[in-house]
Amino acid sequence: MAICTGCSLLCEDIVATFENGALLHEKNLCRKGHGHFRAAFTERTRPMIDGEQVTIDQAIEKAAEILKSAKSPLLYGWSNSTLEAQAAGIKLAERLGATIDDTSSFCQGILMERILSGKIPSCTLDDVRNYADTAIFWGSDPSSSHPRHLSRFSYYPRGEKRQRSYEEERTCIVVDVRKSATARLCSNYYFRVAPGGDAQFMEAILAVLDGKIPKVADKKKMIELSSVLKKTQWGAIFPGLGMIYSLQDKMDLFEQLLSRLNEVTTFKVIPMVGHCNTRGFNELMFEKTGHTNSVSFQGGSAEHGPKYSVITAAKSSDAALAIGSDPLSALPFGTARALARQPLIAIDPRRSLTTDAAKVVIPSALSGMEAGGTAVRMDGVKIKFEPIMKSDLLTDEQILTRIMEAI
Ligand code: SF4
User: Of 38, 169, 359, 365, which alpha carbon lies 20 to 30 A from 322's?
Assistant: First the structure.
């Protein structure tokens, strides 16, 4: 069996065979995972310096030279790297006195930090399958982002206490700005919120739970929702980026809603993390520094704050290393431009906008296919995997170790 690193569900029941570098046969992959496996051998990178092909040793030497001579290097990405590579990256950041950040600093990191510090109750997806009678997809759309979420864990499967499953025992609620694929597919209740209106929606639920009149147009529907929540025996909320971006600095309100709901019944939270190992990086960083991301090791100690988020740090760094992500495609234009203007090192198995703009490109083995390791599922469960094919390429971890040795 193989595991799929196409999203943070890390499905472990995948059967895949390849022939001559192409996917020949597969079983259990969703459409997203199928695309992930099928694209594995296209657009592979080669070791490059300034657009010229070099040996892997030369590329690693050059990367080490750039990082060593930089005054404020930035190490960014990590969300698609294994835990082993992430740990090597954190060591490298400490050694260099660098700033280190990952994709969660502008998405789920704020919520993950509250979960890891115990302020917001969480659980595993297996608990959801076994016990949950209510699942709330808030600003998230698993049918598109994590296509096997509903079938493996949250809606369709039978569980220890949910033998009658979605036909009779599971209620699905979708709160979103639009009627998403998930809302169309499984929602017993769909609540449309205006863009940026999630805080107001939470206040309305809190008001009804406290027996007050909610300040929303459709009071009847809100009272109906409150009654479903109160009747829930064991519920799970899956917040997506829609909720995180809308709440911004009002995350305390979500914490307040959770604690109020847990006075009446049981509700847990699992953030709908996108990349396959974002949570792994968050957990390693939290263990080391008490924060999930945006940390600077300059001066020998760990400092955390928004100025160390990639969005700000990219504007003051004088060299950057991108790994396990494609920041030039994903980040805002100003940040991408700042990264492209400095000596940029890209460690990636496949070609991307970032590798195209990088001064140094170091090809790596594909995690989950050519490289084994460990990743952390969106719910905190560690998944170990073995490579399913032979490769002469170095893993992310080996590349980072060699850069460290060269420094
Ligand atoms: S749900 Fe995610 S991990 Fe599972 S097969 Fe699809 S893309 Fe891969």
Answer: 38
276 lines ligand 1 (CB under 6 A): no
pLDDT at 86 over 90: yes
Give distance in angstroms: CA of 14 to centre of ligand 1.
Answer: 9
User: If DSSP codes are grouped into helix, strand and coil, which group holds residue 236?
Assistant: strand
60 within 8 A of 28, measured Cβ to Cβ = no
> 379 C-alpha to center of ligand 1: Å?
15
320: nearest Cα among 300, 302, 347, 293: 347
Q: Are 61 and 406 in contact (CB under 8 A)?
A: yes
Amino acid 252: pLDDT: 95
d(Cα 21, Cα 121) in Å, to the nearest integer?
44
Report how far ligand 1's centroid is from the alpha carbon of 364 (Å).
22
Q: What is the pLDDT of residue 368?
A: 85
Cβ(292)–Cβ(380) below 8 Å: no
| CB proximity list for 230: less than 8 A, separation 6 or greater | 209, 264, 265
Query: CA 102, CA 104: separation in Å to the nearest integer?
Result: 5
367 exposure class (CB count in 10 Å sphere: 0-12, 13-18, 19+): buried
Using a 6 Å cutoff on CB, does residue 30 contact ligand 1?
yes
Q: Using CA atoms, how far apart are residues 196 and 261, in angstroms rounded to an integer?
A: 22
pLDDT digits 0-9 by tens, 172-221: 999 999 999 999 987 778 999 999 999 999 999 999 998 888 887 788 88
Residues 29/18, Cβ–Cβ less than 8 Å = no
Q: What is the pLDDT of residues 209-252, one digit of tens each?
A: 988 888 877 888 888 899 999 999 999 999 999 999 999 889 99
> Mean pLDDT over all residues of the chain?
94
Nearest to 139 by CA among 175, 191, 180: 175
Note the pLDDT of residue 400.
97
Phi, psi values for residue 281, rounded to 5°: -60, -45
Spacing, Cα 171 to ligand 1 middle (Å): 23
8-57 pLDDT, tens digit each: 999 999 998 888 778 889 999 999 999 999 888 889 999 999 999 999 99
The CB of 4 under 6 Å from ligand 1? The reply is yes
Domains by residue range for the chain, with CATH: 44-106+276-406 (3.40.50.740), 109-269 (3.40.228.10)
